Amino acid sequence: MFTRRSAAIAAAILLSGPALLQSAGAADKPTDPQIAHIAGVIDINAAKQAQKKAQNKDVKAFAEDMLRDHEAVNKQALALVKKLNVTPEDNDTSKSLSKQASDKLAELDKLSGAAFDKAYVANEVAYHKAVNGALETQLIPSANNAELKSLLQTGLKIFQGHQQHAEHVAAELK
Length: 174
Description:
Blueprint: H1 2-7, H2 9-13, H3 17-23, H4 32-37, H5 42-53, H6 57-83, H7 92-109, H8 113-142, H9 146-173
Protein backbone atom coordinates (compact mmCIF):
# COMPACT_ATOMS: atom_id res chain seq x y z
CA MET A 1 0.00 0.00 0.00
CA PHE A 2 2.78 2.44 0.91
CA THR A 3 4.61 1.70 -2.35
CA ARG A 4 1.44 2.19 -4.34
CA ARG A 5 0.64 5.48 -2.60
CA SER A 6 4.22 6.71 -2.74
CA ALA A 7 4.49 5.83 -6.38
CA ALA A 8 1.17 7.50 -6.99
CA ILE A 9 2.54 10.90 -5.99
CA ALA A 10 3.24 11.44 -9.62
CA ALA A 11 -0.38 10.94 -10.57
CA ALA A 12 -1.49 14.29 -9.27
CA ILE A 13 1.36 15.88 -11.17
CA LEU A 14 0.34 14.12 -14.33
CA LEU A 15 -3.42 14.42 -14.50
CA SER A 16 -2.92 15.59 -18.00
CA GLY A 17 -5.38 13.78 -20.21
CA PRO A 18 -5.95 14.36 -23.91
CA ALA A 19 -5.29 18.11 -23.88
CA LEU A 20 -1.60 17.60 -23.22
CA LEU A 21 -1.33 15.19 -26.11
CA GLN A 22 -3.06 17.66 -28.39
CA SER A 23 -1.45 20.88 -27.22
CA ALA A 24 2.13 19.97 -26.45
CA GLY A 25 4.44 19.12 -29.29
CA ALA A 26 8.09 18.12 -29.05
CA ALA A 27 9.18 21.76 -29.32
CA ASP A 28 6.62 22.79 -26.70
CA LYS A 29 7.66 20.54 -23.79
CA PRO A 30 6.28 21.49 -20.36
CA THR A 31 8.68 22.59 -17.63
CA ASP A 32 8.74 21.03 -14.15
CA PRO A 33 6.65 23.93 -12.70
CA GLN A 34 4.12 23.53 -15.53
CA ILE A 35 3.99 19.75 -14.97
CA ALA A 36 3.29 20.47 -11.28
CA HIS A 37 0.43 22.82 -12.18
CA ILE A 38 -1.21 20.15 -14.34
CA ALA A 39 -2.07 18.45 -11.06
CA GLY A 40 -5.65 18.67 -10.05
CA VAL A 41 -8.80 16.98 -8.98
CA ILE A 42 -10.09 15.87 -12.38
CA ASP A 43 -10.46 12.18 -11.55
CA ILE A 44 -11.50 12.90 -7.97
CA ASN A 45 -14.50 14.92 -9.12
CA ALA A 46 -15.46 12.26 -11.65
CA ALA A 47 -15.20 9.56 -8.98
CA LYS A 48 -17.35 11.57 -6.56
CA GLN A 49 -19.96 12.00 -9.26
CA ALA A 50 -19.89 8.25 -9.97
CA GLN A 51 -20.27 7.42 -6.30
CA LYS A 52 -23.55 9.36 -6.31
CA LYS A 53 -24.91 8.29 -9.70
CA ALA A 54 -23.56 4.82 -10.51
CA GLN A 55 -25.87 1.86 -10.10
CA ASN A 56 -23.57 -1.03 -11.00
CA LYS A 57 -21.62 -2.35 -8.00
CA ASP A 58 -18.41 -2.77 -10.03
CA VAL A 59 -18.63 0.82 -11.27
CA LYS A 60 -19.16 2.03 -7.71
CA ALA A 61 -16.18 0.00 -6.49
CA PHE A 62 -14.01 1.36 -9.32
CA ALA A 63 -15.04 4.93 -8.42
CA GLU A 64 -14.14 4.27 -4.76
CA ASP A 65 -10.69 3.05 -5.86
CA MET A 66 -10.17 6.14 -8.03
CA LEU A 67 -11.25 8.47 -5.23
CA ARG A 68 -8.98 6.80 -2.66
CA ASP A 69 -5.95 6.61 -4.97
CA HIS A 70 -6.23 10.10 -6.40
CA GLU A 71 -6.89 11.81 -3.05
CA ALA A 72 -3.78 10.11 -1.65
CA VAL A 73 -1.86 11.18 -4.72
CA ASN A 74 -2.88 14.81 -4.44
CA LYS A 75 -1.92 14.93 -0.78
CA GLN A 76 1.50 13.47 -1.51
CA ALA A 77 1.98 15.59 -4.62
CA LEU A 78 1.62 18.73 -2.51
CA ALA A 79 4.34 17.43 -0.22
CA LEU A 80 6.60 16.71 -3.20
CA VAL A 81 6.06 20.14 -4.72
CA LYS A 82 6.91 21.70 -1.35
CA LYS A 83 9.98 19.47 -0.91
CA LEU A 84 11.28 20.32 -4.39
CA ASN A 85 10.48 24.00 -3.81
CA VAL A 86 8.61 24.14 -7.11
CA THR A 87 6.02 26.83 -7.62
CA PRO A 88 3.37 25.41 -9.96
CA GLU A 89 3.03 27.50 -13.09
CA ASP A 90 -0.31 27.98 -14.84
CA ASN A 91 -0.28 26.96 -18.48
CA ASP A 92 -2.55 26.31 -21.45
CA THR A 93 -2.67 22.58 -20.70
CA SER A 94 -3.93 23.02 -17.14
CA LYS A 95 -6.52 25.55 -18.30
CA SER A 96 -7.70 23.29 -21.10
CA LEU A 97 -7.91 20.30 -18.78
CA SER A 98 -10.06 22.16 -16.29
CA LYS A 99 -12.45 23.21 -19.06
CA GLN A 100 -12.61 19.71 -20.56
CA ALA A 101 -13.20 18.13 -17.16
CA SER A 102 -15.98 20.56 -16.34
CA ASP A 103 -17.65 19.90 -19.70
CA LYS A 104 -17.38 16.12 -19.22
CA LEU A 105 -18.87 16.26 -15.72
CA ALA A 106 -21.81 18.29 -17.05
CA GLU A 107 -22.30 15.77 -19.86
CA LEU A 108 -22.22 12.81 -17.46
CA ASP A 109 -24.55 14.59 -15.04
CA LYS A 110 -27.34 14.42 -17.64
CA LEU A 111 -27.15 10.61 -17.69
CA SER A 112 -28.49 8.04 -15.26
CA GLY A 113 -28.57 4.31 -14.69
CA ALA A 114 -26.74 2.01 -17.08
CA ALA A 115 -26.14 4.89 -19.52
CA PHE A 116 -24.23 6.79 -16.83
CA ASP A 117 -22.28 3.71 -15.76
CA LYS A 118 -21.15 2.95 -19.32
CA ALA A 119 -20.29 6.57 -20.13
CA TYR A 120 -18.34 7.05 -16.89
CA VAL A 121 -16.27 3.90 -17.37
CA ALA A 122 -15.69 4.63 -21.07
CA ASN A 123 -14.44 8.08 -20.08
CA GLU A 124 -12.13 6.56 -17.47
CA VAL A 125 -10.66 4.18 -20.07
CA ALA A 126 -10.05 7.05 -22.50
CA TYR A 127 -8.73 9.31 -19.74
CA HIS A 128 -6.21 6.76 -18.48
CA LYS A 129 -5.08 5.91 -22.02
CA ALA A 130 -4.44 9.60 -22.62
CA VAL A 131 -2.63 10.05 -19.30
CA ASN A 132 -0.44 7.03 -19.98
CA GLY A 133 0.40 8.35 -23.44
CA ALA A 134 1.16 11.80 -22.04
CA LEU A 135 3.42 10.31 -19.40
CA GLU A 136 5.37 8.27 -21.93
CA THR A 137 5.68 10.90 -24.65
CA GLN A 138 5.63 14.26 -22.84
CA LEU A 139 5.81 14.37 -19.06
CA ILE A 140 8.54 11.82 -18.31
CA PRO A 141 10.82 13.03 -21.12
CA SER A 142 10.18 16.68 -20.14
CA ALA A 143 10.85 16.32 -16.40
CA ASN A 144 14.29 17.66 -15.46
CA ASN A 145 14.29 16.76 -11.77
CA ALA A 146 15.40 13.14 -11.27
CA GLU A 147 13.01 12.58 -8.34
CA LEU A 148 10.08 13.94 -10.30
CA LYS A 149 11.03 11.82 -13.33
CA SER A 150 11.27 8.68 -11.17
CA LEU A 151 7.87 9.33 -9.60
CA LEU A 152 6.32 9.93 -13.00
CA GLN A 153 7.74 6.61 -14.21
CA THR A 154 6.30 4.80 -11.21
CA GLY A 155 3.04 6.70 -11.62
CA LEU A 156 2.83 5.39 -15.17
CA LYS A 157 2.73 1.83 -13.82
CA ILE A 158 -0.12 2.77 -11.48
CA PHE A 159 -2.12 4.45 -14.23
CA GLN A 160 -1.62 1.44 -16.46
CA GLY A 161 -3.25 -0.58 -13.67
CA HIS A 162 -6.12 1.92 -13.48
CA GLN A 163 -6.59 1.63 -17.25
CA GLN A 164 -6.69 -2.17 -17.08
CA HIS A 165 -9.20 -2.01 -14.23
CA ALA A 166 -11.41 0.42 -16.17
CA GLU A 167 -11.20 -1.76 -19.30
CA HIS A 168 -12.23 -4.81 -17.27
CA VAL A 169 -15.23 -3.01 -15.78
CA ALA A 170 -16.19 -1.68 -19.24
CA ALA A 171 -16.07 -5.21 -20.70
CA GLU A 172 -18.35 -6.45 -17.91
CA LEU A 173 -20.92 -3.73 -18.68
CA LYS A 174 -21.44 -4.81 -22.30
